[in-house]
Write a structure and sequence with these properties.
Radius of gyration: 24 Å
Structural class: alpha/beta
Number of domains: 3
Oligomer: single chain
Number of strands: 16
Number of helices: 15
Largest sheet: 8 strands, mixed
């Protein structure tokens, strides 16, 4: 048994112990018409503590800073470090005594008593894994400390027969805390550019496709090469520093951004060209006509069986969209929000993504993931962080927190924000003397660093105003207790009331424990 588990890539501690007496009982029960999978399901349900852990959170909004934000330029500045470590920015006092953040996060610094920061997240996988995007994305999104046996940073992005893939945190949430009865939406929805975020770790793995998330493309197509940031405040790290070559319609521009400067979301494209454009969102008659056409297509498809191949998520979503039309009952219709609220969140891709996430959890979605591109700051780091990334996250996230608190939603909505890794303590160009895609010599930035990275948490069972963990004088290594993605996942499960003994069954009916780490002390 032990060798078999090792061959499949699972760990002994993931499995509940089943004694000899129970194994004998399984044979007898099977004769009564209850299969092995049924017995294991009953055992898993019965294994919960008599007094289960109760969390405050009803839902989770996971904000993924794709690329890995720098700890130095966000939540853990080192103002007394040498210049090649400290960087170009200063720090700013916060509402917490003695705590300082990067100077370009002034709004969030004022609200530091509403959220907490873990400064000592880390990956403990091998060096060849913990500094690479693909590996770190898998580790973060599955709450794991190691890749599946036989996989590398290169192979983890592609399907592979026989892979033992741990479920994503979102899939485990949908399994353990499915939507309430009467909620038609999928349990986990990912926005706003799912097709640009085909990263490893987002799949249901051994849980099976029933627990897959619903990824949506809602933002307008982006034509930037190596696009980053928040449309219409997006950019490329390869953008030249020569003002004459700045993006735009000019004759010397490196690329033309005139056609993609609109952050208005469309309604979901549910397949077969059933998308609703930004222009149609503002034309109510046209929009109602599109939904009448959608209803007719659905009725015709159900009669002739042409929709049988569509997955359950699309069935449910199309039914609900067709029945609700645009309006207050449709969470994707941001036109229902007052102008001042949309302005409060920020009229850009990130802010509107946060606003939609709020509407989705109000509609009963258990977890919403909002992807933020652009944090892979190898070059032009200080230009792009100061000019684009930090102002956007400061404005959009602070407006998001204010609105949730004003609505009484912050206590029941867990917010988690982090990237898959941090950045190197020392500043340097990615390649000395090399040139970027626009032909300019690489400018300095920070590179991949999985030894330590920060995580933002707020609401839903999290103690606010806490700074957990301390890094060394260069913010390169933990100088106190450190925490893994498994601990972050356990913290999320704890806040949702999923206890440490809770189990799940894979597609073969085999039981595994959901928790692989420990909730982070000081946060819960």
């Amino acid at each position: 048994m032990k060798n078999d588990m090792h061959r499949h890539g699972c760990r002994r501690e993931d499995h509940p112990s089943i004694g000899r007496r129970e194994l004998l009982q399984m044979g007898g029960v099977g004769l009564l018409g209850v299969g092995m999978a049924d017995l294991l399901r009953l055992k898993a349900e019965a294994s919960s503590p008599a007094r289960p852990v109760r969390g405050q959170a009803r839902s989770v909004i996971f904000i993924f800073q794709s690329g890995g934000p720098s700890q130095h330029e966000t939540w853990d500045p080192k103002p007394d470090a040498p210049a090649e470590i400290r960087g170009e920015y200063g720090s700013i006092a916060t509402s917490l005594a003695g705590v300082r953040f990067c100077e370009y996060l002034p709004r969030l610094a004022q609200r530091a008593n509403r959220f907490s920061i873990v400064r000592t997240m880390q990956h403990v996988a091998g060096r060849e894994f913990r500094n690479e995007h693909n590996s770190c994305m898998y580790l973060l999104h599955t709450g794991s400390t190691e890749l599946p046996p036989g996989d590398s940073n290169a192979t983890i992005t592609a399907p592979r027969q026989g892979r033992f893939e741990w479920p994503s945190i979102g899939s485990l949430i949908e399994y353990a805390r499915p939507p309430e009865p009467g909620v038609c939406w999928p349990g986990v929805i990912e926005i706003p550019r799912a097709n640009l975020m085909r990263y490893p770790g987002r799949n249901p793995g051994i849980l099976g496709p029933r627990y897959a998330r619903w990824g949506l493309d809602l933002a307008p197509p982006c034509h930037s090469p190596d696009a980053a940031g928040s449309c219409p405040n997006c950019f490329s790290h390869d953008d030249p520093n020569d003002p004459a070559r700045a993006p735009g319609p000019g004759p010397r521009a490196w690329w033309n951004n005139a056609s993609c400067r609109d952050a208005t979301f469309r309604l979901p494209d549910l397949g077969g060209g059933v998308a609703v454009s930004a222009a149609e969102l503002n034309n109510r008659d046209t929009l109602l006509g599109r939904f009448d056409d959608l209803r007719r297509r659905l009725e015709r498809g159900w009669r002739d069986g042409s929709l049988e191949s569509w997955d359950a998520h699309r069935h449910r979503a199309m039914q609900l969209l067709a029945s609700t039309r645009p309006g207050r009952q449709n969470p994707f219709d941001l036109n229902q929000e007052p102008e001042r609220i949309r302005d409060q969140y920020g009229r850009e891709e990130w802010g509107q993504g946060f606003l939609l996430a709020r509407r989705l959890v109000e509609a009963g979605v258990r977890m919403v993931q909002v992807n933020l591109r652009g944090w892979d700051t190898h070059q032009n780091a200080f230009r792009d962080l100061k000019g684009k990334l930090l102002p956007s996250i400061d404005r959009c996230l602070s407006g998001f927190l204010d609105d949730l608190e004003a609505r009484g939603l912050l206590d029941e909505t867990l917010i988690v924000m982090c990237g898959e890794m941090g950045r190197t303590p020392r500043i340097s160009p990615i390649t000395a003397g090399g040139r970027n895609a626009s032909g300019e010599i690489f400018t300095p930035g920070r590179h991949h660093w999985g030894d330590v990275f920060p995580c933002f948490l707020a609401g839903g069972g999290i103690r606010p105003g806490q700074i957990i963990g301390r890094t060394d004088r260069h913010a390169g290594l933990p100088a106190s207790d450190a925490f893994t993605p498994a601990d972050l996942a356990a913290t999320i499960f704890h806040c949702l009331g999923v206890g440490p003994d809770r189990e799940f069954l894979d597609v073969q009916g085999r039981p595994y424990r959901i928790h692989r780490g420990q909730p982070i002390a000081g946060l819960v």
